[in-house]
Input
Amino acid sequence: MSKGKRLRYRRQVNNLKYLHEEKEIIEEILEEAHVEFSEYLAEFAKARQLQFLDDSQKEEGTSVIPHKSDNPSGGSGREFINDEVGNWIETTPSEPAEIDEVHEIFRKVYRALAMHLHPDRLSPSMSEEQKELHLRKFKTAKSALENKHYYNLIILAEQYDIEIPEMSGEQSEWIEREIREIREKIQSLQSSYSFLFSNCKTDEQREELIKRFILQKYNIPL
Output
């Protein structure tokens, strides 16, 4: 890989790393925020004798997982469907032709990783803890290849100084697509009512957000 291409590749990978870390942090925030939002919603509804929650939702207080109602496609050409709780789910698009070529490139990376991680390749002198660590990494690599999560293969390859084979311009576009996709996922998570609720500073802000959600989901003006 030429120095210019390597520099561009490193920038792309570093950008992707940062975005994955950002997404993980937001998802951790949302785990608590979903519960807090739903509990606040249940209390808000109870105080105003609103009847839009069914019995199971009243008891659990956590089953409402609110998300932004607007279709997130935004004219991007991507297609979404809305499930029964207001989440937008992207339909599976047809993959570009070069994806098959990219997959073959990362199949080679996986095979190189297997030389280090496959249980049959481990040294008998390794401790059980070391063997378990290698086994987990091997399973991660196998899952990454099967599910085309190439980012995970890149991270593992770096740990074992395995060089990613050089890609053509079209083949390297997959990483730009993944950067765009994860940015869109982050934007979608940050647009959820739960995330917005976690950023509210005052009770007034929380109440206004709850009212917006109730109006949007149940068409009840308050």
In short: The chain has eight helices and two strands. The chain has two domains: 3-94+174-218, 98-172. The radius of gyration is 23 Å. Residues 140 and 152 are 8 Å apart (CA to CA).
